[in-house]
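STRUCTURE:
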């Protein structure tokens, strides 16, 4: 069953077309990746799914609901980690989780969530004193504290060192193991290959293709490259898509 259905989505800002024609569906229980170059329309697309922006054309359904007209019901089902998310410097880890849990009618046990995500030792640490990886752990915890059915994670590992990135990947797998469907926006092809069941490749505001990482690699036709990587495949697809 598709938990997210995006059909012919369009979004324009003044004279700029951010999303020209995007369609894809996300199945229950999968990690679904959205990849493509800067300015391709990835973040605008997920903002329309989240109900943060109203589409100019097409339709979006989350668990059968319209994120704009059914905003409150959709928000109860979505956990959102934004590309740029900041908390007050002085707020402590436990205070942030306690505050966010108060926004939901049936929140998760934030104390258990704090333990599960390895934050118990930092419960009294102010946000400003957390490392990059710890901030991402807290960001994931805040996205899950409302007991969502779907979590949307936008550029989750940007700026993290290699070990923190790998730790965060394991956290994402744990999120899926909790029964949460994950939509992951990423620039990192190793991340997409290791985590995602399927990928939507977006270029110039359009979906070029939707397929598994393995199929994208197998079908890649890159001149002069005998064994293409996922990065090679996506670069070739987005270059072709941007010239349409």
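SEQUENCE:
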């Amino acid at each position: 069953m598709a938990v997210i259905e995006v059909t012919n989505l369009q979004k324009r800002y003044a004279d700029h077309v951010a999303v020209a024609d995007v369609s894809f569906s996300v199945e229950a229980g999968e990690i679904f990746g959205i990849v493509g170059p800067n300015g391709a329309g990835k973040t605008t697309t997920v903002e329309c799914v989240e109900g943060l922006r109203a589409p100019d054309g097409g339709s979006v359904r989350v668990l059968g609901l319209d994120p704009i007209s059914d905003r409150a019901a959709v928000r109860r089902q979505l956990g959102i980690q934004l590309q740029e998310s900041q908390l007050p410097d002085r707020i402590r880890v436990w205070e942030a989780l306690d505050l966010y849990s108060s926004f939901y009618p049936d929140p998760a046990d934030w104390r258990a969530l704090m333990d599960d995500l390895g934050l118990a030792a930092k419960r009294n640490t102010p946000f400003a004193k957390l490392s990059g990886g710890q901030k991402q752990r807290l960001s994931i915890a805040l996205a899950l504290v409302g007991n969502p059915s779907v979590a949307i994670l936008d550029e989750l590992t940007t700026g993290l060192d290699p070990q923190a990135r790998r730790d965060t990947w394991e956290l994402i797998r744990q999120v899926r193991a909790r029964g949460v469907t994950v939509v992951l926006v990423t620039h990192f092809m190793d991340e997409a290959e290791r985590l995602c069941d399927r990928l939507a490749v977006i270029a110039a505001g359009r979906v070029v293709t939707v397929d598994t990482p393995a199929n994208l690699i197998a079908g890649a036709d890159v001149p002069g490259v005998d064994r293409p990587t996922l990065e090679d495949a996506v670069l070739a697809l987005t270059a072709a898509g941007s010239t349409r």
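REMARK: The two ends are 32 Å apart (CA to CA).
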